[in-house]
Amino acid sequence: MLLLSESPEESESALHDYPIYEVSAVAESLGYRIEESHLGIEQGPDMVVRNPMNQVGVIVESEVGHNITEQSYRKFEREAKELGKRNLKAIIVITETPRRVWQKKLEAVEPRRNFFVVAGSVFKDVMPSLLVKLLG
Fold first, then answer.
1. Facing residues of 37 across strands?
2. What percent of the chain has pLDDT above 70?
3. Domains delineated in the chain
4. CA dist., res. 118 & res. 10, Å (int)
5. What pLDDT, in 10s, does the model give residues 98-134?
6. Its pTM surpasses 0.70
């Protein structure tokens, strides 16, 4: 719902950022560290979560409130190529259109191995177990 005082850009940003804030809270409650957070127009992944015990990390990208475009897919491919160099295990994408993302063939992406897509409607239920599975 767009409030009168909000611009469409502010509303879109709030939709996009909400899952990142929720995942951040879940990750920290599980003992993981938020290593990076790049919201708004900042360059970089939306969030990098790392297990301080084994130093394994994951990238979390929120595409909620955005249309997924070729630029999004190129970003996922770029990030997938960098996973090993940064001791990152996977990319987790939260989106309202998970089937569309799963159908796209991406370079360096191995679905359900180093690339996971979570529906925006269930991410709060799925993320705790997915983080534990990936980060240990």
1. 47
2. 91
3. 8-135 (3.40.1350.10)
4. 24
5. 988 888 889 999 999 999 999 999 999 999 999 999 9
6. yes
pLDDT at position 32 is 98
Instruction: Give residue 11's pLDDT.
Output: 47
Separation of alpha carbons 65 and 12, rounded Å:
5
Residue corresponding to tokens 């009168």: 4
Q: Which is it for strands 47-50 and 57-62: parallel, antiparallel or unpaired?
A: antiparallel
Where the chain has pLDDT below 70, the residues are 1-12
Length of the chain in terms of residues written: 136
Sign of dihedral through CA atoms 136, 116, 46, 23?
Answer: negative
**3-state SS record for the chain:** CCCCCCCHHHHHHHHHHHHHHHHHHHHHHCCCEEEEECCCCCCCCCEEEECCCCCCEEEEEECCCCCCCHHHHHHHHHHHHHCHHHCEEEEEEEECCHHHHHHCCCCCCCECCCEEEEECCCHHHHHHHHHHHHHC
**Which amino acid is located at 84 in the chain?**
G
